[in-house]
Design a protein that fits this description.
Structural class: alpha/beta
CATH architecture: 3-Layer(aba) Sandwich
Radius of gyration: 19 Å
Order of helices and strands: EHEHEHEHEHEHEHH
C-alpha cells in the first residue's frame, strides 16, 4: 500500500536524495524546507510530490503545512525529520557566540519536536504510523568542537527513543538514523578530513531500505560507526584522552 509521507528538510543533501527514494513508496510525498525554489525543482520531476515550504522553527509555518496535509490527505503514514544545521564551537578563538547554541538547538531539536507533536493526530490516523529522525553518529562519543551540534543530536536521539516507548502501544513506530559523514552542503564546509564519506544517494538508499525493513536504529557506514560505538564503551576518561588529540584548542589560557 502506498503511503502518505512527509519529508521535512528536503531541499539539499540527504533530503534531496530522499525525495527520489521515498517517492517510490508514496501515494503522495510532501516535501518541506525553507527554499521554495529548490523544492519546486525537485517536485517537478515527480507526479506525486507536493511542496510545503516553511522554516521548521516557525510555528505558523508548521501549522499551515499540517493543515494543508490534513485537508488534502487526511492522514500521515510516515514523518521524516531531516531538517538540520551545524555550527562548531571554537574555544581557541576566545569568547564563543552563545547564540549558536540556540540556533542549532532550535533547528535540530526544538523545531522537529514541536512539529511532531503538532502533527501527531495525523499519524494516529494511519494504520501503521512511523516517525523517522535523522540524527548523527556524533553522539556515540564526545568529539571536539561539537558542543552545540552533538548536544542537539543527543537530545534529539533521546527524545526519539522516548517517543518510541510511549507510542509503541498505539502502533506508531520510530526509526533513529545515525549516519557518519555524508557529502552535503553542510559537510562541504568542514575543514577537516572526513573518513568514509558517503554520497547523499548512498545514504538515502540505506535509509529507505531500513525504513521498509522496519529497523529501529540505522547507523552507517558500519566500518566507521562501529568504531565510534566501541570507543563509546570505554571509560569516559579514556574517551576524553583519545579525542583530545583531535582538538585544536591546545593553548592554556590565563
Amino acid at each position: 500500500m502506498k503511503k502518505i509521507i512527509w519529508l521535512v528538510g528536503a531541499s539539499t543533501g540527504i533530503g534531496a536524495a530522499l525525495v527520489r527514494e521515498l517517492a517510490q513508496d508514496a501515494e503522495r510525498l510532501y516535501i518541506s524546507a525553507r527554499s521554495a525554489d529548490k523544492l519546486s525543482a525537485l517536485a517537478e520531476q515527480f507526479s506525486n510530490v507536493n511542496i510545503l515550504p516553511f522554516d521548521v522553527t516557525d510555528r505558523a509555518g508548521r501549522h499551515a503545512a499540517i493543515a494543508e496535509i490534513e485537508q488534502q490527505s487526511g492522514r500521515l503514514d510516515t514523518l521524516v525529520l531531516n531538517a538540520g544545521t551545524c555550527e562548531y564551537v571554537d574555544l581557541e578563538q576566545g569568547d564563543t557566540d552563545l547564540g549558536l547554541y540556540q540556533r542549532v538547538l532550535d533547528t535540530n531539536f526544538h523545531g522537529p519536536v514541536a512539529l511532531t507533536h503538532e502533527a501527531l493526530h495525523l499519524l494516529r490516523r494511519s494504520d501503521a504510523g512511523c516517525i523517522v529522525g535523522i540524527s548523527s553518529s556524533v553522539i556515540f562519543t564526545p568529539l571536539p568542537r561539537s558542543q552545540a551540534y552533538g548536544s542537539s543530536k543527543a537530545a534529539f536521539t533521546y527524545w526519539l527513543s522516548t517517543m518510541a516507548i510511549d507510542l509503541r502501544g498505539e502502533g506508531i513506530s520510530v526509526v533513529i538514523v545515525s549516519p557518519g559523514f555524508v557529502d552535503t552542503p553542510l559537510t562541504q564546509l568542514n575543514d577537516f578530513k572526513m573518513p568514509f564519506l558517503l554520497s547523499p544517494e548512498n545514504a538515502a538508499q540505506r535509509i529507505r531500505d531500513g525504513i521498509n525493513r522496519g529497523k529501529t536504529h540505522l547507523h552507517f557506514p558500519k566500518r566507521f560507526t562501529l568504531l565510534l560505538l566501541l570507543e563509546g564503551l570505554l571509560p569516559l576518561r579514556w574517551q576524553h584522552a583519545l579525542n583530545s588529540k583531535l582538538s585544536r584548542n591546545k593553548t592554556k589560557h590565563t
